[in-house]
Amino acid sequence: MSIQVSFSAPSIAPNGPRLVTFFLCAALAWSQTPAPTVAAAAPKPPDPIATMVGRLELDRYKQTVKGLTQFGDRRQGTDRNRAAIDWIEAQLKSYGCTNTERIRYDYQPPAAGAGRGGGGRGGANADPTAGPGGSRRRGYRIPEGVNNDPLKQPDVKLRELNSQPSTPGLREEVYCTKVGSTHPEEMYIVGAHMDGIGWGEAANDDGSGTALVMELARVFSSPDVKTERSIRFALWNNEETGLNGARAYADQRKGMQGIESPPGSGQYPEPKWLGMIQHDMMMFDHGMPLKDGTMSKQQRPEADINIEYQMTSKFADAAMVLAHKFQLADDKYATDYPANVGPHMTNTDSTPFMDLTPSISLREAERGAQLGQGWDPQHHQPTDLYSTYNDDDFRLGLNAAQTTLGAIAQLTGAKLAETK
Prior knowledge:
Blueprint: H1 16-31, H2 48-53, H3 58-69, H4 79-95, E1 101-107, H5 156-161, E2 169-178, E3 183-193, H6 203-220, E4 225-226, E5 229-236, H7 244-253, E6 272-279, E7 305-308, H8 316-333, E8 339-342, E9 359-363, H9 391-412, E10 415-416
Helix pairs in contact: 3-6, 4-6, 6-9, 8-9
């Protein structure tokens, strides 16, 4: 800063030179005074939810999927299915989710020709572009179907493992619960189905979703994780026969919601349902079939996580809001893939809940418009094997886990407590 002072010599008083010198020095000192310093903003404390999300690891997720495939396709009503349930329960307990319980129900196959729950394709005169759940099919299509031919499985050991047929009768499915510290009477249900079909390993359908739910149970069961509300981690059975396991749970327990038992105990065997989140086929997003019916061997550049609600459900508006909360959680916590929201949730275990509580599903692709077009050629086929998928595929599943963990942690008021 420069200071200019002008004066006329004849008008200087006897002490004028001294005053001029004083003012010049003062102006110079003022011009060199440093500006007031602004105190540096205190660093933000680490986000506890980001810390929890960081505990999800690709190798752990892969190992859990691999562990599930040791039981083959885990078809319901078989010894391999029952062994898988025992293994899942043991894993949950090893994570610290020790309050495991089982739902029991009797399954009798429907009469020949009876429809599968959760949506169908319609009759002979139905619009061929109409897909499940109100979706609309477009583009090139690979026919859907379930492989029931054991000889299409070239691996002799796997074919032998999957050879025991399903028999009617008693069924079981396992779940465990993270009990909320301040609102144990309220909870979110986080689910996936552990049974499969097709003479493969059911690695993607639905080992990918089952492993996701198990990994979330592991993280939330850490001693330093506290939640205000409860979370139930449920691994459904009998999804492939028509959502029977999830339907049995809903039918048996919907009337128990929010009831303290015994009275005054502070215990709620079935907390009030605040929402149900299903995970079903999480890993394969390679795009639509090519014109010659083949599929790209690489993940498509636009791969994403599809979050769906059902626009015709009783809780459609609340489910839509819930879906967008998950999309925002993906924006904040998922490392590699975006999430998109659609209104055509169908053909999975959230269906029995959708008129009882806000319900959404997470998938690798839209169930009706994309999976219904044949976007996953491993669906119910012998090729649904652990070895079929690459790290990009597994990473897509891991990102869905990051999305759900971030959203559920926010919804339940999750925090990290200091441990001794």
